[in-house]
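Take a look at my tokenised protein here and describe the backbone shape.
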Amino acid sequence: MKRANSRSRSDLEDDLKHLSGLAYHRLESSEDLVRRFYRFTRTAHANSDHLQKLYDWLFVPITLWPIDIEGILRAALDRVASGRRLDNRMLLLIDLLRSPPSDKTQRAVSEHERLVQRGRYEPLIRARHKYNQIESELARDPTFQAQWNAIKAQFDVAKFADHKRIIRRRPVAERSMRDHWPLRLTKTADRFHAVFDVFCQRWNLYGMQGDRPLLLKLTANLTPFGTMIFIPAYWSFDPKRDLNWRAITALQKARDGILRD
């Protein structure tokens, strides 16, 4: 990215084109922020370097973000728009943020994100037949169907689906940490998610799409802190044959520069 106060309309279009090439609909969520930042750069500000650092991070694959970069940049621009400088805590946060990773790292992670967004783990995972077998058996299982029908009889499940008609169970983070752990049954949504989480654990699902079960896959995913390999409970794991270790190692090595800078 170009430095503040040296930008042109073509630079703006280049930045928007870059954003459009990233996974997870980044242009839709951040186009207005990019245009807003360009307007900000027309004037000098004491915190320009810190805002520039946040802006450069906006174009890093979201998988590598340690925090909500878009959110903190919006908050920072709101503050300077009101005529104030960034406070010491915000400056500390930005100072602690590493320099953006290399172009090589960003290209590798961007490609990984595009595959993950489409649910395609084939370059990293072998033994697809194990998934196909369980998926086929599940679709024909009468107990599974009866339990799903019972849930639909108690809840209007469409209310909990996203724009792809997918209902997702609540995620479990590292070391089984769950923000939603305290049981709350006062609202219909709370009761549904409790029932749905149990249902998904029973059948090894990450969710449902309409009446189609979304079976958990053997996956390898990058995070800001490392690479996570997830082995579903039903999977008969063969470490030598089931994973493409060369591809996973290449992804892990792509981030080495981030870890050492």
User: Anything to note?
Assistant: The chain is about 50% helix and 10% strand. The beta strands are 166-168, 205-209, 212-215, 219-223, 226-230.
